[in-house]
């Protein structure tokens, strides 16, 4: 094989359609655009246009908002933590943190921290350093002899330029 003999596999690429080159080509005169009107012209973008009637996307009410201060937590139930302890993925002697949960495979991304939820039963005596926890989870952790420390995390507010 030589460099000047390299070519695509047959049929891997099509040549472009040449329009407006006579009626014998099959794409002559109107070039496949039909006859007259706005859509026969170039540069037309009328995606939501309904003939002057108020378009559907403007008739429907707006809903919801974006909270720039909202936090996105990884949520873990106590039952799932107990299963991980039983399977040996979490060591009861080590403090459970965001990093240790990622290492054990219980969560995949750090996000804004971990929130412990109270679904399930926790028998192991674990100590936690997490961003948030439900009241039932805190009660269950303390009832099993463990401890929990909630880390204070403030979200970064979107900043406007100080110079005005």
UniProtKB/TrEMBL annotation:
The keyword Membrane belongs to this UniProt entry's keyword annotation: no
Could you cite one Gene Ontology molecular function of this protein?
structural constituent of ribosome
Task: List, alphabetically, the InterPro entries matched.
Answer: Ribosomal_uL15, Ribosomal_uL15/eL18, Ribosomal_uL15/eL18_sf, Ribosomal_uL15_bac-type, Ribosomal_uL15_CS
The superkingdom listed in its UniProt entry is Bacteria
Show the ranges annotated as biased composition (Gly residues): 21-35
Assembly with partners or alone? Part of the 50S ribosomal subunit.
State the HAMAP family in the record: Ribosomal_uL15
Large ribosomal subunit protein uL15/eL18 domain: residues covered: 75-149
Keyword line: Ribonucleoprotein, Ribosomal protein, RNA-binding, rRNA-binding
Residue ranges of the region described as Disordered: 1-35
User: NCBIfam families from the entry?
Assistant: rplO_bact (TIGR01071)
Quote the biased-composition stretches of kind Polar residues, using this chain's numbering: 1-14
Q: What does this protein do?
A: Binds to the 23S rRNA.
What cellular component GO annotations does this protein have? Answer: cytosolic large ribosomal subunit
> Which GO BP terms sit in this record?
translation
Q: What is this protein called?
A: Large ribosomal subunit protein uL15
* Family named by the database record: Belongs to the universal ribosomal protein uL15 family.
Pfam families for this protein = Ribosomal_L27A (PF00828)
